Amino acid sequence: MNERQVDTLSAIAEMEAERVRARTGRAVATVRVSPGPYFALASILTFSSVLLLRSEYYASSLLVIALAWSVVPLLAFTDRIAFDGQYLRRQGPICFVLKLFRIYSSELAIEDFETVETSAVRTLRRGGSVRYRYRTEINGKGKQFVIASGGNSYRRLVRELFPLIHEDKLDNRSRDLRDYLNDPRFVNRKTHLTQLAPERILDLAKSDFKLGGKLNERQEKPAADVTPQDVERAHLLRRLGNELRVSGRLREAGEAFRRALNVTPRGAWLIYDFARLLRSQASANSDARLLSRARAALRLACARAGNDLVLLPLIGESFLECGDARQARIVLQKTVDIDRDNYKARLGLADLALREGKLAHVIHQYHEAARVSSEQALVRYARREAEYYGRLNDDEEYLATELRRINWLQTVTRVRRLSARVTNAAILLALAGGYLDVTLGSIGWSIASSSLIVWILTLLGTRILFDRSKPRSMA
Questions:
Q1: Which of 183, 156, 201 is closest to 29 using CA atoms?
Q2: CA distance 436 to 433
Q3: Smallest Cα–Cα separation from 53: which of 43, 65, 41?
Q4: Fewer C-beta within 10 Å: the chain N or C terminus?
Q5: Helix axes 311-321, 343-355, angle to 10 degrees
């Protein structure tokens, strides 16, 4: 080996060492993994220890219960998702062991993100406020990270990670979190400085503010009377309204939007944000009238948006969230007519075509999405989806296999939910029946054991059936 080759190998080794140092750098933000699976494991182990205790295996029962409530919580506490500025990775003892034996490596660079989707679950509702728990799912290169909200660590991760993700990879809720998720103390301070009415007063007030009505037109200021200070105040109120909406303080958010709309009632972005608030209120209160108003506000936002190629796809996605596929298609098609290279509009049209069962249209839209995107991860995702639906369209045997898999998945999911309910009911029967009749208690434990085994098997079956089937290689 000559000196030039040695220098080349040394340079390559130094580059690799620098890359490893960058990947193992100090985490900018970390968040604990959702403890749900660990709680489920601890509950199963606890149930097993009770069965061992009933069978008079006292030492084994003590060992299992100690494992359930000492080791499992420790694993849940140390299992974290960390972001170091370039890579998102899973940390913890289990991940370290799996990675050490090359069984599992969960690490994903920002540029390899393909989709970032956030769902919101209401955990508590009080008056005009709800408590949201957000669940963000990040996919890319066959890997998946699930991040659940839970305090300042989640807000810090969103603040550090989401601004670095390409706009086309974020759905509407992820975009809202990126722009408007804030510390509750700062939101309270801004609400106090803006002098919004207290929540207890707003709860008693009737919310009858409407867009485009005659009363609204009479109260609207002439354009010449709107000062730059008024416009700036409306902008600050719009931001505060979105921060309150994301925090779940819907009634106060409505008051902030009402004040902003009194100043600038024709702002397309402001009307769009107000429509999303109406949709959140409709979902929280199960109010069809509010949902209808949200759709009307989205139509008005679309009319005022003009040729805004950033806002129009967001309006189309919001129409889908409101269950109005017809208006969603009109908006997304309008976007494509203005700009044929709009990635989000292409994906929205593909989703609509899939809902209608038009596989040829789905394939076309995904191919177009792959063509127009400059992001390698988005191109990879769109091409993979186009190939999958193309295979469904061309191969009847593969289509039958996938339909069978989906039917099995739905059946297994229903059985899993039923077995979970039966397990809980049988445990209550065993505990209560034990005081009344030993035979009744034994029947309860037997039913609980059987249904728990069914639940575990269906859980494993769900994980297996969730992945798409691999096509058979042609000879």
A1: 156
A2: 5
A3: 65
A4: C
A5: 20
Question: Residue 173 and residue 242: Cα distance in Å, rounded?
Answer: 11
CA geometry: angle at 62 spanning 61 and 65, to 5°? 85
- Rounded to 5°, the CA angle 139-178-151 comes to 90
Which residues, 6 or more positions from 205, have their beta carbon under 8 angstroms from its beta carbon?
A: 197
- Helix axis angle for 376-394 and 396-436, nearest 10°, is 100
- Enter the tokens of residue 439: 């035979």
Report CA-CA distances (Å) from 74 to 32, 99, 100, 302, 441. Answer: 12, 19, 20, 51, 33
Residues of the chain with pLDDT under 70: 1-26, 102-105, 127-128, 197-226, 473-475
pLDDT in tens, 60-100: 999 999 999 999 999 888 889 999 989 999 888 888 777 77
Q: Return d(Cα 389, Cα 363) in angstroms, integer.
A: 6
**Cα torsion through 202, 208, 209, 210, rounded to 10:** 160
**Residue-wise burial string across 129-150, b where 16 or more C-beta atoms lie within 10 A, e elsewhere:** bbebbbebebbbeebebebbbe
Which among 154, 156, 162 has a CA at the least distance from the CA of 179? 162
**DSSP structure class, residue 114:** -
Task: Decide if 441 contacts 452 (C-beta within 8 A).
Answer: no
Sequence-separated (6 or more) residues with CB below 8 Å from residue 232 = none
Question: What is residue 407's predicted lDDT score, i.e. its pLDDT?
Answer: 95
Among residues 167, 197, 122, the alpha carbon closest in space to that of 313 is found at 167
End-to-end CA, the chain = 45
The whole-number pLDDT of residue 16 equals: 45
| Residue given tokens 């416009």 in the structure block | 231
Strand-pair partners of 137: 117, 146
Residue 98, classed as helix, strand or coil, is helix
3 state DSSP class of 472: coil
Structure tokens at 99: 């990675």
